[in-house]
Amino acid sequence: MEKLLLLGDEAIAQGFIDAGGSAINSYPGTPSTQITEYVMKSKQAKELGVRANWCANEKTALEASIGVAYAGKRAMTCMKHVGLNVCGDPFMNAAIIGTKGVLVVVADDPSMFSSQDEQDSRFYGHWAMIPMLEPSNQQEAYDMVHFGFELSESLGTPVLYRIPTRLAHSRAGVVRKPVRKQNELTEPADAKSFVLLPANAKRLYRELIDKQPAFTQASETSGYNKFIEGENKKLGIITTGIAYNYLMENFPGGKCPYPVVKITQYPLPYNMINKLYEEVDEILVLEDGQPFVEEHIKGFLGKGKKVMGRLDETIRRDGELNAEKVAKALGMKAQAEFSIPDVVTARPPALCQGCPHFDSYTALNEVMANHKGGKVFGDIGCYTLGFNMGAIQTTVCMGASITMAKGASEVGIFPAVAVIGDGTFGHSGMTGLLDCVNEKANVVVMILDNDITAMTGGQPSSANNKIRKICEGLGVEPEHIRDIIPLPKHHEENVRVIEEEVNYNGVSVIIPHRTCIVELKKHLKK
Amino acid sequence: MKKDIVLCGVGGDGIVSVAKIISDAALNMGLNLKQSEIHGMSQRGGSVFSHLRLSSEEIFADVIPEGHADIILSSEPMEALRYLPWLAKDGWIITNNEPFVNIQNYPDMEKVNAELGKIKNLVSFNATEIAKAIKARPNMVLLGATVPYLDIELGKVEEAISHIFGNKGAEVVEQNMQALHAGYEQAKK
Fold first, then answer.
1. For residue A3, how many other CB atoms are within 10 A of its CB?
2. Facing residue for A347 by CB, picked from B10, B37, B66
3. Which of A177, A211, A391, B64 could form a disulfide with A386 if both were Cys (CB 3.0 to 4.6 A apart)?
């Protein structure tokens, strides 16, 4: 079969197309974006009639996948780790339903290259009591999409598929499998399973509990979890996902002297781990993420053989795993020859030259300078970089700019300004604005409209060309929805408009509208 | 054969394209490879890097452990220094020596050059100037200067450029070839 050079993300996407997937519904988020993007651009997917959509947010996306599964077809929804919080509701309930043919792909971001936290999605999968997959390389990333659908369809459960940033954004050669046919349109075998009335839900939850031994059995026998023999029984090592590579990197030719349990499928393979425990003196757990496995096998009382890992900080608990950290945990020497000279200074990311947000912030900063005590509540996107211009005081989660401004304004902060992008507004800003209107909150909401979801590389924004209408529909007074153009030549006018709306006691929306400079350049090139 | 390469620079300067070209050549030679890169927030004018690992043996980690890089290929002099912990004892630095100043506290160039001068195996030259003269991008000039240290024949890299830029037209391919050759000549000086 053909060998392709693919990012981990792209391997998952190609796997989805080849495994007979029918629809992928997602919301962009680093490092998961390239999965859905790949399917969108794939000629093969187009020819096979595979649907690929960007949705308003992760919740609407996953619900669409449950709909696809209801129709009997294979579905995938991809997101970054914090996106799983947004779709927590359909995620937990898809598990109860026992939704067949659904893969929920979550890209975690250890070391927070482009995120607000390091939450490890495996805790969610465990909580939902569903099988999880965590491939260790690009080939497995491809293969395990095929396998994930088989597992989902044979066991009657959605499957959580977890990758970290390094696998998502690293390329390697991937050998393809034969293309599988999509499923036919069918009625659910159990019509009541999609009706989560208490009477049905109670039965279904019991069924989910009863499926657990089968889930564990699959982990023992699928071949994806491996017990690798080793002569030196002083230590036994458990690796999950790509941590296996960081272990083997330290042994030429991958010849590790210690016995290893390599985990890429959950629930944890009890027999394999028990066998390891029986034959070694101590256990070291290597995982790129939070100490999920370590916490499970250690036990609350800490009795029995010593289990080391990130929980006891044998390996630093925060930050991504790497070969150096593993070497240190194994008592091996670090090999760095040189260090960073003192002359090197930090070069943090910054707004691009010619970015419209820069002009919006310059105007806003001028207004806020005259209102001591005023606060600007920021949101998630390129414009978060306005922090470096002293323009925003908060960034918490998608949509929180508007709702935090509302809460703060109601207990005395004036002026309370929210700054949110068009993409984030479509994701989860609209409901917050409705709250503001209903409470007649004294807030100024600036919706920075650059026509695109810029930070993740230019995906369409769900509220594009609809922002004014949405605001009007939510009840913002039309005369307090102001359009401005964020350009230096309009600076004075923009300052005046912002000042006027700050002084209006009620909900104001200001829409600075100018296309993202990176997008504009892309179009000019075409 | 084993080559671990750290490619680094400033977001938007095209180091990922260079990594892609080397990868394409390596794949055609039947080598194993892993190439890791960074997307998202860090891309916006900040310091960026990509790790490229080529080997005839199995490659495990997607990222190069510290002290293992055979080559640091940098589009910017201070950025080359930032990734020094990855450089192997006998590794090479190939860097553009034209600074990209998008921060207020950019250090004195004399000091930057002094630090670079401490590296035994160094190719440092003004790739921006060479690129300007032939209306090309510095990243391709730097790629050319790296070829002699890659254990990959120039012809294989040329093939990769034709392959990757082919759909952008003959003119783009020719421009990149010219830049590649200019860099290649520079490294031989």
1. 13
2. B10
3. A391
